[in-house]
Write a structure and sequence with these properties.
Layout lengths: L5 E2 L9 H12 L16 H18 L5 E7 L2 H12 L3 E6 L2 H11 L3 E7 L20 E5 L1 E2 L4 E2 L10 E4 L16 E5 L9 E7 L16 H6 L9 H16 L2 H22 L3 E3 L10 E6 L7 H10 L2 E2 L10 E4 L6 H18 L1
Parallel strand pairs: 1-13, 3-4, 3-5, 5-8, 8-9
Antiparallel strand pairs: 2-10, 6-7, 9-10, 11-12, 12-14
Helix pairs in contact: 1-6, 2-6, 3-4, 7-9
Length: 358
Amino acid sequence: MSKKVHVFNAGPCLLPQVAIDNAIEALKDFSGTGVSLLSISHRTKEWDAVMDECRALWRELLHIPETHEVIFLGGGASLQFLYVAMNYLEKKAAYLDTGVWAHKALVEAQGIGEAYAIACSKDKNYSYIPKGFDIPANLDYLHITTNNTIYGTEIHEDMDCPCPLIADMSSDIMSRPVDVSKYDLIYGGAQKNVGPAGVIFAIIRKESLGRVTRHLPTMLNYQTHIDKLSMFNTPPVFNIFVMNETLKWIKSMGGVEAIQKINQQKADLLYGEIDRNPLFVGTAAKEDRSLMNVCFVMAPGYETLQDEFFAFAKAHGMIGIKGHRSVGGFRASLYNACTVEDVQALVDCMQEFEKLKK
């Protein structure tokens, strides 16, 4: 019998077992067609049913108003950095620079037009979310990254914004309720919370499109994919199927509102141990701590124990807790499918290590 493992990977994320099991069955026989999901035509009624259900689940779980459309595209959020600027940047846009991915989005926009950092937390290694900055009303848009996986910070509430608001929600989508009406665009890669790598979601205010004067290549025009119901070209069929199964699981858990309570419980449990245990210290400002990505290091005086603790945790079944290569330390990603029991196992491991070293 294999030992129990506890998966804290930052992405691709831990997915609910039922979604994995249903995907395995569909790989053998999709929807009773006798054809594998990997060989199914996306022009069949059986596939249409999956697309319709997936869009409907997005709408239901996030209470998406009729003013917005939901689309799915191949690729990742990094390609969406270009989509955003191509479709929305006409005169000037601002970006809240809160980490690596937020900065990369800004750089991509600067290759298209005038874009600048309205505020930045790089001065403290992106350990906090800037606050109190003024937002000009005449911007084409303000772009934010709601959760920063590398540094473990998160914007916990939907901000009021005098200009169009665009958000990369790759790593905290479906982890909490969202007031979609406040955003012109919400986008992200699926692989942090809602599916495997290779597909993105975009929630688009319909009236926000068509405002730029530049020529938009067909594939880079959001309107193309809205008009063709995300099937202008062959969609990433397998990835969307798994996304749909994951959303069905979220619904079965009580929806996003119930998931948020569990996520808060998990985060409180782990941050509580980090704050209590003299061997460890958190790296993010407490008021901005992410519920999705918990980042911490060995406390001053215990730095030499880092590799030893990592090996100890791995031996006890902890998978994926090494920090991003650019910052080091440790990172436990508590995405939706990560359980309270998984987090308790990590806490127990930290406490056991403490007893050995004190």
